[in-house]
């Protein structure tokens, strides 16, 4: 084997281990979502079932947490994206020294632990509510509001970083030219800067929504008596998990794959149209293939395929297979009990045979005959009828004579 072949084998083995490490847990969770076992496992395999998706949807507390997370996530996007954009524009208009100082201030919340942010949010808004005389039913003590405020304090910095990266490629002379030609600052912003920032706005909105949706460290303190999707999941894992969480993982993976495929189709189509290679391409030159690879068509095909598989899975009845598995478990349990009875019976028979074949002569001595002979009989002392032990008897009180 030459060096090139050996290097290829090592690279292939390393790649296999790397992708197994990345996707192995996801594959395991996908498989366990369709096993009828009440505990997430691959082996032993019992029956194929889709009932865990119904269990997931039927969990009211989890669904309420999902609704709360979606509401908070949308609110965080609507607040964090404008704040991040304003911070990025302010930094781009400042001098180097002041920019560095303000950048440090705006980026600091990302570096603070989420536990500290959660506790400080409760303390700050609670003190503010007491200062204005608000009662405990006001917004200052509302878990949804506190979670929204606590997440915005650091998630808006993520949006600012996205806008700063985009603004580094912007030519400020474009807005200056628009202002020189009579455009107002608002018109220059809406017609020149905002279209340039539109990709960054989409990226920042998506990033802030995900950061809000999956946040736990801050939310677990600020949500108070309420719950979000992540806090409910953490509570469910602590108190005992089941394959419904694996079903949730399957749904998330499916949504991610659909979004990735549609985005890839959109990117390739945009690049082909921008480069002018769409007419020369075998795919985009064909009217039928051009419609098939359109992002909307790709999305419709994927959603249709998932809907068909979901319908087919919901029609599958696993009750017969589950009954067979239950009967096998009962038969196995009876077999184990019978084997235990046989062992106990054999042990009793062996113990009886040992007692019958060996005669042991017991000694009447309390020490087991260690000192030989018969044990001495105790000397019996006649009892006196007097309760004083005959101390005042006729013989004891008579005077002694020499």
TrEMBL record:
Similarity section: Belongs to the binding-protein-dependent transport system permease family. CysTW subfamily.
Pfam families, per the entry: BPD_transp_1
Gene3D superfamilies associated with the record: MetI-like
Membrane spanning residue stretches: 12-34, 70-91, 103-127, 139-164, 192-213, 245-266, 287-311
Top-rank taxon, per record: Bacteria
Protein location: Cell membrane
Keyword set includes Coiled coil: no
Chain ranges of the ABC transmembrane type-1 domain: 66-263
Region (Disordered): 346-402
Source taxonomy: Bacteria, Pseudomonadati, Pseudomonadota, Alphaproteobacteria, Hyphomicrobiales
Key word Transport present: yes
Protein known as: ABC transporter permease
Bilayer disposition of the protein: Multi-pass membrane protein
CDD domains reported in the protein's UniProt record: TM_PBP2 (cd06261)
């Amino acid at each position: 084997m030459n060096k090139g072949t050996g290097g290829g084998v090592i690279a292939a083995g390393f790649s296999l281990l790397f992708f197994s490490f990345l996707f192995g847990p996801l594959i395991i969770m996908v498989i366990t979502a369709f096993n009828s076992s009440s505990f997430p496992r691959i082996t032993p395999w019992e029956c194929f079932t889709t009932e865990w998706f119904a269990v997931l949807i039927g969990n009211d507390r989890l669904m309420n947490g999902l609704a709360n997370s979606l509401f908070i996530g949308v609110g965080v996007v609507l607040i964090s994206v404008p704040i991040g954009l304003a911070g990025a524009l302010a930094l781009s208009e400042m001098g180097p020294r002041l920019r560095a100082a303000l950048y440090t201030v705006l980026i600091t919340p990302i570096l603070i632990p989420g536990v500290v942010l959660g506790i400080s949010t409760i303390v700050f808004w609670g003190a503010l509510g007491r200062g204005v005389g608000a009662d405990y039913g006001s917004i200052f003590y509302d878990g949804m509001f506190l979670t929204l405020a606590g997440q915005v304090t650091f998630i808006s910095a993520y949006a600012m970083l996205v806008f700063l990266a985009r603004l580094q490629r912007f030519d400020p002379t474009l807005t200056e030219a628009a202002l020189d030609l009579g455009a107002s600052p608002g018109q220059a912003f809406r017609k020149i800067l905002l279209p340039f920032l539109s990709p960054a706005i989409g990226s920042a909105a998506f990033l802030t929504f995900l950061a809000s949706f999956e946040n736990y460290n801050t939310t677990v303190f600020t949500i108070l008596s309420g719950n979000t999707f992540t806090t409910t999941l953490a509570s469910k894992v602590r108190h005992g998990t089941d394959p419904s969480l694996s079903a949730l993982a399957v749904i998330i993976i499916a949504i991610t794959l659909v979004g990735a495929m549609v985005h890839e189709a959109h990117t390739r189509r945009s690049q082909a149209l921008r480069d002018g290679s769409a007419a020369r391409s075998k795919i985009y030159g064909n009217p039928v293939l051009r419609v098939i690879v359109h992002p909307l068509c790709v999305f419709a095909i994927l959603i249709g395929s998932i809907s068909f598989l979901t319908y087919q899975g919901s029609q599958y009845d696993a009750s017969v297979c589950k009954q067979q598995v239950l009967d096998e478990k009962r038969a196995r349990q009876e077999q184990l009990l019978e084997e235990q009875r046989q062992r106990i019976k054999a042990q009793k028979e062996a113990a009886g045979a040992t007692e019958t074949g060996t005669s042991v002569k017991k000694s009447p001595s309390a020490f087991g005959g260690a000192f030989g002979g018969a044990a001495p009989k105790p000397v019996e002392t006649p009892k006196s009828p007097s309760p004083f032990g005959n101390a005042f008897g006729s013989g004891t009180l008579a005077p002694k004579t020499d």
